[in-house]
């Protein structure tokens, strides 16, 4: 081949997209991440636990790994410890922790494991997109390393107009429709987590409704077999998804259930579960409409 044709031929070879691996056991959160990263020049891989993640990493390298911390089987923290012990498995991937309730102690643990970016659930789509794409750029050497985002909600949420009392200036509306949060609460969720894009919010909400049917069954089964770990995981995932959808009271119930189950107090977890179950039944009924 003549030398003058070689650059053109090389340019015709498509460059592989950066690979981002999401490790998250909650299907609703996986859908949220997919929405946030839709249209970005990346290949998004998703799996539900650390075991699947390890299999994917053995099959080929990724440039960014985003992981929840609390998952069944090999947890996100266990996965990160494994990567710290086996750097050849990590292959230099940028690490992002994406979980609810990352406190100061957990931040120290994560930093010791090489995690430089952290996102606390619930998070805005813009924050999620910004942090993941910054990690992609950092791997490619186009962004400064060592940037930590411990809680991106306050930093990236769009500003809301405040009334004199300091509350968002949203006009009170009618009673919520079945399966919906109160209109003012949905408006706050749209502004805070979806950048004001109501259509995106409602698309995400519709995608979540079938999962609430599954969550109801999983919760009943977990209490029936006295499985505190499963109750804790369910509360952990529900508190973030419900908050993202504007259901603040239901999110608080899920948090209370998680906290009680984390201490092994299943009897104490049953009270918030009873109230939360009624909320989930309303959401599950909306999925059947």
TrEMBL record:
The HPt domain, residue ranges: 197-289
Domain of life: Bacteria
Record PTM Phosphohistidine, positions in chain: 236
Positions of the Response regulatory domain: 19-136
UniProt modified residues of type 4-aspartylphosphate: 68
GO MF entry, a single one: protein kinase activity
A matching Pfam family: Hpt
Key words of the record: Phosphoprotein, Two-component regulatory system
GO biological processes: phosphorelay signal transduction system
InterPro entries: Bact_response_regulator, CheY-like_superfamily, HPT_dom_sf, Sig_transdc_His_kin_Hpt_dom, Sig_transdc_resp-reg_receiver
Keyword match Phosphoprotein: yes
Keyword Phosphoprotein belongs to the record: yes
Protein name per its UniProtKB record: Response regulator
Organism in which the protein naturally occurs: Rubrivivax rivuli
